[in-house]
Structures are given as C-alpha cells and as structure tokens.
Amino acid sequence: MLRRMLIISLVLLVILAVGWASLRRADIPFDTLESIYTSNTSRFMTLENGLKLHYRDEGQPEGRALVLVHGFSASLHTWESWVDRLGADYRIISLDLPGHGLTRSPDPDDIGIDLFVEAVAGATEKLGVERFVLVGNSMGGNTAWQFARTHGERLEGLVLVAASGWRNEAEDGDRPFAFRLLANPFARWLMKDIDITGLVRSGLQDSFADPSLATPAMVARYVDLARAPGHRESILALLVQRDERAEATPGRLSMISVPTLVLQGQEDRVVAPSGAPKFADAISGAELRLYPGVGHLPQEEAVDATITDLTEFLDRRIWLTNEQVEDTPQPVLEPG
C-alpha cells in the first residue's frame, strides 16, 4: 500500500513538473522588444546610475512641457491617447520607469519610488527641461507627489491620476484577483517564469470599468514587456516592498505648494477612489475631478473628459497665471 502511494505521489510530481516546465517562458531580448514596441519618436538615454532609459519627446519642441509617468507594470504606451490629443499645443515627454517597458532593470534591491523620482529628475535634466507639469498615474502618481515634495522648485504643476499612496487604498476583497494572487509569496515564486497571459488579462480587465478595453493587443504588450530581461524580478520586488513605501499623509502632502489637479475614476478597483479627496484636501488649493463609470486608467477610458479637465486646469491655474505675472509691469525704483 505504501509503495503504491509513493508511486502515485511520484507520478503526480512528474505531471506537475512537466506541466510547470511547459508553461515556462524565457526572457525576450531587448532588441526584439524594441523592434516591436518603439515608435519613430522613441529615444534612449543613459542615466547617471548607468540605466538605459526609454522615452519619447513629442509635440511642440518649444511648447510648455508635460512629463507623463505610468503606473505599476505599465509603460509609456498608456499615455498615447493623451499625446495624440495634446501634442499640437504642448511638448510632451513620456518615459518608461526602471524595470518597466523598454527601460532596463536595476538590481531588484534598488527598485522603488526613490529610484523612480531619481529617473524623472535625471531624464528631465538631461533633456534640458528646467520646469514642467508632472503627471503620474497610480504608482506613477506616487512617484509624482514624492517628486513634488523633494523637487518642487522644478514643477509648474502636478496632476495625480488615480495616484497611490494612502494605506488600505482598497480592501483585499475588492482588489483585482491578479493583485491578490501576487500578494502571496509562494504564488510569486511559482509564477515568476511561467506564462502569465491569463493573469495579465484578468488584471487589465479589472482595471477598466469596461473590460472590453483590455484588448488582445494590450494584453500581449503587457506580457511581452514583462518578459524583458530583469523585469519580472523588478515587478515582483515592487510587490514585496509595497507596504514599505512612504505613505501619503496630510503632513507629507502639505509640503506641496504647486497647483495640483487630482483625477480619479469612481469605479477604480486598484486604488480606492476614497484616496482622491484625501489628496485634494491635503494639498493646498488642489482641485478634484471624479469620473462616474470609469476605472483605474482614466487617461485611457475617459480620454475626452480627462483632457478637457486637464487643459482647462492648465490654462486657468498655470499658463495664464504665469503669463500674467510675466506681463505685469514691475515697479521702477527711483535713485536715492
């Protein structure tokens, strides 16, 4: 009987091992990914820390600058609809954060919000952009408000799109299944090297109020870019350290003094919509826009509404205000 049980156990282990091996997926070389996911405006630079960073510098070269920062496991492609609509009037710089998209991965021990802030600072300095409006979605929003705290003198404005940072942003039961599964250490280890297409599809569908927006092409892009060398380790490292990031608090956010716009979908299942009014309350003078029937990616799901609110805010709170200050006659001091 014991021998029979041992044989059955060995057979099951062999079956599981063969099944796991059949699902394993190797890294995709950057050269291959770049041939698919770059555009004619894609450029690369090497940051001070040696990382090769992918970015796009589009729109009006002499225009007011917007810098766009994507969220967790995403890439600069999330902003393409905004770039198409805003490029006629603004200079728009979008970038892939370290460990994402076509930007190279750091040591997993180094990845985090501080590194992302450093990447934004370094990239804009190399491009000669002294002052700009910084826009961040989700984890990119976390990066944006942290940047505003430490480099506020370089910002003309701040736009937080479903920004993360508040503790208990979503109850575990409300978070997408993909995020809850990856919170388990064993699940992370098991899935690090296997095909995660189904998991990515589920996570993207849950990120939209309208799941049909998670198209096969979008799912394939997320899966492919996650298989860039080192990216899976980077993404898993970010999940492990999620609870160690500096939290958003009224005290920390009170240090931000630039004009700020907060945008969030009311059907967001990734970052709880309750965080948006907290940002608006904590940052002096911040404005809040909520979108009914919209999920975690309003820049993709509510393009018209978000662009209307963004441009109106920029004109009223930043550009026209700055021009009025510049045009105001300065008092002439008489000698003596």
Features:
single chain; 336 residues; alpha/beta; eight-stranded mixed sheet; 14 helices; disordered C terminus
Task: Explain briefly what this protein structure is.
This protein has 336 residues and is of the alpha/beta class.
Description:
With 336 residues, the protein is α/β, with parallel strands linked by helices. It is 44% helix and 14% strand. It has 14 helices and eight strands. It has helices at 2-23, 30-37, 80-86, 113-126, 139-150, 177-182, 185-191, 197-207, 216-226, 231-240, 250-253, 275-282, 298-301, 303-327, and strands at residues 42-46, 52-59, 65-69, 91-95, 132-137, 155-161, 260-265, 287-291. The chain has an eight-stranded mixed beta sheet with strand order 1-2-4-3-5-6-7-8, with helices on both faces. Helix 12 links the parallel strand 7 (260-265) and strand 8 (287-291). The radius of gyration is 22 Å and the shape is globular. The N and C termini lie far apart (109 Å). Residues 9-21 and 324-336 have low confidence and may be disordered.
Structural Rg:
22 Å
| Uncertain stretches of 5 or more adjacent residues | 9-21, 324-336
Major sheet, described briefly?
Answer: 8 strands, mixed
Q: Which sequence of strands runs across the widest sheet?
A: 1-2-4-3-5-6-7-8
Number of strands: 8
Strand coverage percent? 5-15%
Number of helices: 14
Terminal Cα separation, in Å?
109 Å
Global mean pLDDT? 86
- Indicate the percent of residues in helices: 40-55%
Strand-and-helix sequence, N→C?
A: HHEEEHEHEHEHHHHHHEHEHH
Shape: globular
Q: What structural class is derived from the secondary structure elements?
A: alpha/beta
